[in-house]
Each structure stands twice: as structure tokens, then as C-alpha cells.
Fold these 3 entries.
Entry 1:
Amino acid sequence: MNPPPNASSVPFRLWTPEERRASLDDALKHWRQGEDVWVYGYGSLIWRPDFEYQERRLATLRGHHRALCLWSRVNRGTPECPGLVFGLDRGGSCRGVVYRLAGKAVPDFFPALWDREMSTGAYLPRWINCATDAGPVRALVFIMNRDNPAYIRALPEAELLAIVRRAAGRYGRCTEYVMQTAHALRAAGIHDARLDRIARRLEAEPDPLPDN
């Protein structure tokens, strides 16, 4: 099974450093120098945060759910054979983690976070209340921008699996990305029934890439 016919023809453009900086400045316009901040993770940030943090908590975000809803043409795919990565799509709720970063680390860390998460402007950075066992925290959350051309609505599971199995990018195979996220959620005690089902099928049927 091949990806949908329009998968490789969707417009693709990396944001310029100036666009990323403008987005970052807008997200931090109400931040006070030295103030600690919380960042919400629901995908690779759970198993590869790439920053030092003061505190980590399990957290529930309401109003959005974790989904493989974003075409990846660099990190886990190519323009010719896109992969899929996680976004927070509209509706439901999502169990993830929140990290508390020391305020003094924000000026150094946030540009790197923007390079990682906002390379194509596919996400909308938002400050949203997340529920934790120790009380609510207001965290930076990267939610899916449904107006971005790389957004894709829910696919039939067989089609989604075929796309994941065949794609690979600069950070490795798309299959590995999905599996690492599933394993990290399990290790954190987070249950995601749909992702668990996808991960079990990937484990049971590890198809090779087309050129193998």
C-alpha cells in the first residue's frame, strides 16, 4: 500500500531563522526574565528532551489528543517518501509529561527548542493549563496547526502502518520513532490504547524499507 497520492506533493518549506525567531519572541512576550517555565511533552520530548530540567511530572492536557497527523519530510521521511510524526490534534485529552525549566536556562534553551519543534511552522505554540497530581501548571504546548499543509487527518490504520514502515529520514526510521514513543509512554505509566495497538502491529510485522 502506498501513501495517499498527494502525500509527496504537499507544499514543503523550512522556516527561516527570522520566522522562527519571530515566533519565539511572540511566545515569550509575557515571560518575565528569570521566571521558571513548564514545557509539555507528548512525543519525542518524553524520551529525548535534550535539556536539563528542575522537575518532571505526569500531566493531562484536555482538548487535544496525540495522533500521527503530521507529514515528516526531513526527520522521519523524505519529500519523496514522507513519514508521519505526532501532533496534538483537536478533541479528547492527552496524557504526557511536563518539565519545569529554570528561568535562567530559557534564553539558551528556547532557541534550540524552536529549531527542533518549529522548523516548518507546523505547530502552534500555546500556553495551556495542564493537570498534574501536584496541581495545575501552565505549560508551553505545541499543538497541531490544522491550516498547515503538512497536517493530515486520521488515516485508516492499515494505511498509516504502511506509511510508517516505509519511511526514514535524517533521524532514522519512522518505525523506530513510533516504537520509542510507545516504549517511553509505557515506562512512564501512561496508557495510550491506540498507540499501543499500532506498536504491537509494528513489532509483529516489521516490514523492511522498500529498497531493502
Entry 2:
Amino acid sequence: MSSADRGVREALLDAAARLLVERGYRGVRMQDVAAAAGVSRQTVYNEFGDKWGLARAVVIRDNGRYLDGIDRVLSEHRGVYAAVTAAVLFTLEMSADDQLKKLVLTGAGGDEMLPLLTTQAEPVLFTTSARLTEHALRQWPDLDRGALTEITDAAVRLTMSHIMLPSCPPEAFAHVVARMVVRYLGVPEESPAAAAGA
């Protein structure tokens, strides 16, 4: 993809994200996205196929930006417990402030986009789990890949569930997930105080 093509795609995704937040999925037309990006409607169809493909691309890009943040958060901690706690808190805080995720999760303007993070969430879930696993293996190469892959997927799904239906305060939930992860992996469980100072 050329720089010009990437520029058009990014402009379309920016416009679509803005319009989705403002109007909800039902209120966005491909023509509106094209006009906001200064291109023809056919260009939008050529790039994304249909409105669902466009919405999916917006969510996948948003998830990629979130994962860039997670990479930074994980890298700031030496211990697994501290890193998981910080990553979960980062996820919950970012989700609370992310208007696009709120739109998808709450069904504002219709619940059409909810499957992108539930029943049709494979691109987001698989990408998230795989990237977290690879980061963890680079940072803690002694971890067992199979066990890490399993517990990462479970932790991601549990955190997504908590975002949609919180069961306890964010800090408490982050420590629940961290305890689950380190116990499954068989690595030392740090005290909350130690984790905070890691």
C-alpha cells in the first residue's frame, strides 16, 4: 500500500470513527464518510466493501492503538504480577474514556456493532491475545508458551466481560486477574505493595 493509499485509508477511518461516535452505526452513511474525507463514495466501498467492513476496520485500528499502549505499560514493570495489574487498569481506564468503545459496548445508536467485541470479535480477540503473549515471551522468556497463551486468552475475555458488566472496582479487579495469571503460570505472586513499586 502506497503512502497516498494509506493516507486515504486513515482519513476514511478518522472520518468514520468521528461519525460513528456522533451518530451511532445506524446514523452513518458511506456517502457521509466519503464527504468527510473528501473522496468519492465509491472509494469508501472499494476500500472497505460495505459499512460493516468499515466499522470493523475502525474497531481493529482502535484496538491496535490500544495494544501500542499496552506494550508500553507492560514494559514498565519487571514482575508479571505488577505488569498484569497495570495492564488491566490501563485497559479499564482507556475503555472508560474511549467514546468508540463505549459506542460498541453500550449499543448507542443501535447495538449493531456489539458483535465486533463479542460474537464476531475474532480479529480483535486473537490479535490482542497473540500480541500480549508475544510481548510477555520477549519480556519473560522463561514462561511456558502454551500456558501463557491459554491464560492470556482467558484474561482478555474476562477483562472484556468486566468492561461490559463490572463486578468490582477497577483496582480490585486488576488484582484478581493478576492473581489468576501468576497462579496459572506458577510464578511468584507479589504483594500489592511490591507490585506497586515494581
Entry 3:
Amino acid sequence: MTATNYYGPDPNNHPDQKELSNIFRNLKPSTDSAFVLGCDGVLRNLTIDHNVLDAIGLPPRLIKAFLDRGPFDPRMEDMYRGVDGTKVPQEQCWKPDPSLLPLPLTAEEKARIKKENEEHKDIIQESIRKMESGELKPCGVAIRSNHDILSSS
């Protein structure tokens, strides 16, 4: 079964993908942060120093929707099977144990990201302005896999 068959001919119309896209749009934005799904099922917007700007616990169906936007990885299935981010205490959402997050960036990686953000600052700010004004529409969802995290196997 292909991922397109799972979500239908237009994954942008799938309710879980629509809901996930709305969550991304509503999380606090920043030009120097990234969305990270912790192994506890909490979607966080993290700065390069791993400070949490925003966080929301995802139910299993939205964790699956998140994973399906990336390439298939059986390790991700194992990691997220049975995980429900909606059951995570608020304290852990905002102050997660480092083991729940990706490895911290090296000083070199941080410097490279800061340099690239500075070099593209005007383009990034213009894109944000256009998105907020409705002049620029978000890209559609690309489904790249079909993770099976909702079953017990």
C-alpha cells in the first residue's frame, strides 16, 4: 500500500494532516527555531540552544501524521508506538529532560545556522510577512511514508 492510497489522492484534505498543519501555523514562530517531535510525543518549537518557545502534546494519530511527512523509518515506528503526547505533564512539555530531545548542536553547527539566518534574514522576514498577509500560501503536505504506530505490534 502506498502512502498516497492511505491518505487519498489529496493528503492536504486528510483531517489529521489539516489539523497538524494548523498546529504548526499556530505555534509561536521564530526565525531561529525548529519544530521537534520529542520521543514523549510533544511537538516543541526549540531554539538552537534547546529553549522551548512553544509546545503541544500530540495524540497518536497526529504523531503518525507528523511521521508520515518524512521518509519511512522502522525505528520511528518502534519509538512512537503507544506514545500519547496529550498525557505528558505540562511541566515536562516546557522543561523536557534532555533525553527526550535530539542531541544538542555543536558550537560549529550553531555558528553555521546563525550565519545562514543572518545572511537570509531579509528573505525570511519577507516570507513571514507575506504568509501573515495571505499573499503567500503555505506549501501543500507531502506524504512520504505510512508509519504503523497505532497498532500494538
